[in-house]
Amino acid sequence: MNRKIKLTIIMWALFFSLNAQTGINIPQMTSCDNLVSNFITTHNIPGASFALAKNGKLVYHRAFGNVNTSGTETTQPYHLFRIASISKPITSIAIMNMVEQNQVTLSDKVFGTDGILENHSFISNANITDVRIYDITVQHLLEHSGGWDRNINCFANPTSPYPYDFSGCDPIVAPLHVTQINGTANPATEEDMIVFLLEKGLDFAPNTNYAYSNIGYLVLGEIIEEISGQPYEQYVKSSLLNQLGICDMHMGKNLLADKAEREVEYIGNGYTTLSSYDTGNFVPWEYGGFNIEAMDAHGGWIATSRDLVNLLLAVDGFSTKPDILSSPTITTMTAPSSNNNNYAKGWAVNSSNNWWHKGALDGTATFFARTSGEYTWAVLLNKREIGANENQFWTDFDALPWNCINGTSSFPTHDLLDIPTINSTNIMFPSINANTLTLTWTNGNGNNRIVVAREGSNIEDFPLDGQAYLANSSFGFGDDLGNNTYVVYNGSGNSVDVSNLQSNMSYSFRIYEYIESLNTGNNALYKLCGGDEQQVTTLTVTSTEDIYEPELLKLYPTVSNELIHLEFPFNLERGSYEILSIAGIPYKKGEFEGKRFTINVSSIENGLYIIHFKTKTGSLLRKKFIKI
């Protein structure tokens, strides 16, 4: 083959491997695929996830590129991303839900006597010298008019203990300095950040100006906790997300080692800073430099693009899907503020009645929006571009969904949000043998489900939307999701007998509900979160002879702390028994004859045991019991 031709083929293969699209293919929306592929290539973005809804239906849900720095794992639509400041609209929805429930009003004061946080265990101890702080209301915080301006310098030069100085006055960039000033332990907390600015004072009187404030939204998170009595994340999940069946949104973690299941890796721009854990080491901003865990209500969430669209459709004010807030509440939430016509309460807005928010951190760029034309989208990236091309990056990022919409002449009618809201739970193993077991569960609300099994622990491969899977209850013969994760059941029932297992071996099992219908475009849509993963160890075979458990042999009680009784339907001339643990360790042995006999088990340790019976003819029988 011509060397030049061969090189060209390799380059094209590399291009397509880096920009491979995953998710359900939408033939009439290939222009969207091409636009996203071109965008991430132009701006050197490793991975992306894009969900687009039209008239309340999710019509497009695709992923691109890779999730890790090594480029060995392809991004899937099910991957979770840090969403940065898209967390602010989530906090706004939570606050407005409290307003609707008459738990708080927008005019409520936050600090000082009779303020919501008057008795907060940490914040109430702040040394406040700027009395204007006592005028801050819930509405001021939602609208970024509380009085803090992060662009006005407040940090010392250098900003100890960092060997350099920070500009502006946003404490999230300098967590070690915050704890040093506060005299508190590392890593910094949300309360540390708030107290730092409370003691610095305000840059303008509340409600006289607009200045984007991360700390204002941290205060809103504390308000949610103070009023609800629950951690911020728990309240948002229990009061908002759970009723939508959303279980793939969580608080993010600082370190790569602690990332959530199916969370992507973040690729920064090569800059490091001192670890927020005060180790003295320089670490990437995206992994330990920034303290993501102290960003909760202003920038701490991780999510899938589909779940973000699901949430946005539940507050969009349209009738295509039920809203979780009333129409008057939504109108109030999205009304332009008096200090900025283009920002409402946690939402950027414009005169066209479009609402949106963007998010950015090192290793993260995000964008979600709701338009007056009933288009809704979420686009998530695991890198952002900075430097000379930064403005162009954001311009192109903003244009990407619009270009996708304008380039599509015919949209599908399916709804890729029609997934189960409740997954299967309560996995149990009523029967476990050397080479087989019975698995039962409680069904969720899909119309079908698959059971997957893997030797060992930690199932890390997942079913893909739109993919049908062939099951085989003989382990190893069904479809492989990856890394020998086999489908052992696919159907509408609630039990399966799994065979072809190895004795004394651990296996992991998971169940995924799915819906496949005309509304889904006959695509199977799987529920990956909210279920159980269970491990079980098969029994140990201690003899080469056949082992069976005939119904004619009765053992009672099966759970005992002292005596167990055994009964045969006929007299036996002579036989022997041996009690072994499931690992095959012998504990007790003896002989028996006749039809009935009793064994005292009070002297053996608590646990699951097997009694092997050997008759005069050499037949080997087995029964299990539990000693308590």
Care to describe what's here?
The longest helix has 17 residues, at 390-406. The chain is of the alpha+beta class. The protein starts with a helix and ends with a strand. A hairpin with a 2-residue loop joins β10 (355-361) and β11 (364-370). The chain contains 13 helices and 26 strands.
Features:
single chain, alpha+beta, 13 helices, 6-stranded mixed beta sheet, 628 residues, globular, 21% helix
Percent helix range: 10-25%
Low-confidence stretches: 1-18, 541-549
Largest sheet descriptor: 7 strands, antiparallel
Strand order in space, largest sheet: 1-3-2-12-11-10-9
Instruction: Estimate the mean pLDDT confidence.
Output: 91
How many β-strand stretches? 26
Based on the structure, what is the oligomeric state of the protein chains?
single chain
Distance between the termini: 73 Å
Based on CA inertia axes, which overall geometry fits?
globular
Structural class by helix and strand composition: alpha+beta
Count of DSSP H/I helices = 13
How much of the residues is beta strand, in percent? 25-35%
Provide the gyration radius in Å. Answer: 30 Å
